[in-house]
Amino acid sequence: MKEITASMAGTVWQVLVSEGEAVSEGQTVIILESMKMEIPVDATDGGTVESVKFASGDFVNEGDVLVTLK
């Protein structure tokens, strides 16, 4: 299982993938908002989305697992 983590604390602004969806390396999976800036979170590997751990509006901390891939 591969994990995509938050690079900084912020609020989930937009979730761009859903469970079962195929993603490729470098694809943006979530957009975080912090200090009125939008921060894209990209997949570091390709795979299939196993789970999305947060929804729009949720607060995340740096290092939280946002998405798992299989």
Automatic annotation (TrEMBL):
Keywords: Biotin. InterPro entries: Biotin_Carboxyl_Carrier/Decarb (IPR050709), Biotin_lipoyl (IPR000089), Single_hybrid_motif (IPR011053). Residues 1-70 form the Lipoyl-binding domain. Pfam families: Biotin_lipoyl (PF00364). It comes from the Bacteria. The keyword Cell division does not apply. This is Acetyl-CoA carboxylase biotin carboxyl carrier protein subunit. It comes from Fictibacillus phosphorivorans.
